[in-house]
Every structure is written in C-alpha cells, then in structure tokens.
Amino acid sequence: MFRHKGKTRTLQHNIKIASLLSFIAGLVNVAGFFAVKRLTTNVTGHFAYFMDEVYKLQFWSGMVYFLYIFSFFIGSFVSNFLLEIVARKDEQYLYIVPASIECLLLIVIGAWGQPLVNSYPDVLACCLLFGMGLQNSLVTTISNSIVRTTHLTGLVTDLGIDLSQLFFYRLKEQKARLHASIRLRFIIIVFFFLGGIAGGILYARFKLMAILFAGLVLMLGLIYDSVKFRIIVMRRKLKNMRHP
Predict the structure, then answer these.
(1) Is the per-residue pLDDT at 198 higher than 80?
(2) What is the pLDDT of residues 23-44, one digit of tens each?
(3) Residue ranges with strand state E in 11-144
(4) C-alpha–C-alpha distance, residues 102 and 203, integer Å
(5) Rounded to an integer, what distance in angstroms lies between the CA atom of residue 17 and that of residue 136?
(6) Under 8 Å CB-to-CB from 221, ≥6 apart: which residues?
(7) Closest by alpha carbon to 32, among 119, 109, 98?
(8) 3-class DSSP assignment, residue 244
(9) How far apart, in whole angstroms, are the C-alpha atoms of residue 15 and residue 21?
(10) Which pTM value belongs to this model?
(11) 216 in Cβ contact with 114 (< 8 Å)
(12) pLDDT tens digits for 62-113?
C-alpha cells in the first residue's frame, strides 16, 4: 500500500493506506486535543485564530498560531523533500524515511510527552502538527492527490459532490469511477471517526500514551507492508526459477 506510486496504484492500495492513516489521524486529533487543548491534525482553525490575534494587534499571541501553521507546513515540506531524494535512489523505499520519522515522533511523544503537557503544550502541539504534515504530504504524493487523511473538510465536500453526481452520471465507466471514489472517501471518514473514538477511550485511561498506540499502529502497518512486499518478490523469484 505504501510502495506503489502513480499508475501502479490501485483502488485497493489507496483503501488500505487510507484506512490506516485516517485511523491514526483521528486518534491523534482527539488525543492531542484532550492533552494540549489544541487542534493537532489540521491548521484551518489556527489560521482563523492567527488572523484574530493580528486584528487585535496581539502579535506575540498570534505568533503561537503562526508556529502551529508553520509546523504543519514544515512537516509537509520535509516529507516531500525526503521523497524526492529517495526517489532518485530507489523508489522501492520511497515511503520509509518520512513514515519512519512520523512513527518515531508519535512513539516518543506518547511514551515521554506527558510531563510536557502542562509546561510546554505548544511544543507538543507543534510536534504533532509536524507529524501530521509529514503524513498528509506523504499520502498525497504517493496516491497522486487522491487520498488525504488528516482532516475531513475537503473529504466531506468531495463526498457531497460525488453523491450528487450519482443523479447525473449514466455511462457505466463513469458510474464505476464514481462508486470507487465514494467508497474511498467514505472509508476515510469512517476510519477517522473510529480513530477518534479510540483516541478518546485510550486518552481517558492512558492520557498522552494514547499517542504511543498511534505510533505502534503505524509501525505495524509498515512491517505488514514490508513483509508482504518480500513475500511477493519471493514468489516472483520462485516462479521465474520454475519457468525460466
């Protein structure tokens, strides 16, 4: 689900990666908000608060919201920068570096971030926003902008558009593409909500360690993808040996 890019990607690849990453984003969104009382998976609200502080001439207060926005932007920038570097060497490992950074970041924050919740909440918020910027850029790039997982505004809009088009599309190929798009968007929204529910339940019991669970889920996804890829390569080698 991570390794395929461009024309080699299928709907099933996108569904798998969308399910995994939207669940993680939903979990981080809820657990992060409960922990630091900030939005930690998107920057739309932060931009509004930033402009409000600027309007009131509270530039120092506004700078905090600017840092939230900038952290998400830097995460996106770093992710694509690393993707471009790795793509020039070996596209098989395209996703590993940014995904591993996000995984490590979530595990570190979940395991050791609780003491910082009261003293440095803004630092934690920036770190989580950086991680979500990494994730959003990664999945957007490898899915050709089909999948986005860290917020629902655009997804709900696109789902509404797709559902309205059901009344007008008549050709079989058009309807097939539309049904695939609706299915993908619906899955992203459902898994984001499931991640949010999991985040709320885990935070109530384990506090910020709920973020650790998100990191472990991502790690399992990376391991699954790596093992599956090795099995596919091994099968191809065996097939070539039998039929030279």
Answers:
(1) yes
(2) 999 999 999 999 999 888 888 8
(3) none
(4) 20
(5) 12
(6) 1, 2, 20
(7) 109
(8) coil
(9) 10
(10) 0.90
(11) no
(12) 899 999 999 999 999 999 999 888 878 776 667 888 999 999 999 999 999 9
Residues 216, 24: Cα–Cα separation, whole Å: 10
Distance CA 2, CA 5 (A): 8
Tokens of 150: 């860290």
Sign of the C-alpha dihedral computed for residues 131, 135, 141 and 146 taken in this order: negative
CA-to-CA separations, 208 to 43, 109, 201, in angstroms, rounded:
21, 8, 12
The set of residues, in sequence order, having a beta carbon less than 8 Å from that of 21 and lying 6+ positions away, is 135, 139, 147, 149, 218
DSSP string, 138-173: HHHHHTTT----S-SHHHHHHHHHHHHHTTT--SHH
- How far are the Cα atoms of 1, 68, 95 from residue 17, in angstroms, in the given order? 6, 26, 12
What does each C-alpha distance from 134 to 73, 75, 106 come to in angstroms?
Answer: 9, 4, 12
Rounded CA-CA distance 182/45 in Å is 26
What residue type is 149 in one-letter code? Answer: T
**Numbers of helices and strands, H then E, in the chain:** 9, 0
- Cβ pair 243, 131 in contact under 8 A: no
Contact 3, 95 (CB under 8 A): yes
Q: Using the structure block, give the residue that is written with the tokens 């997804």.
A: 155
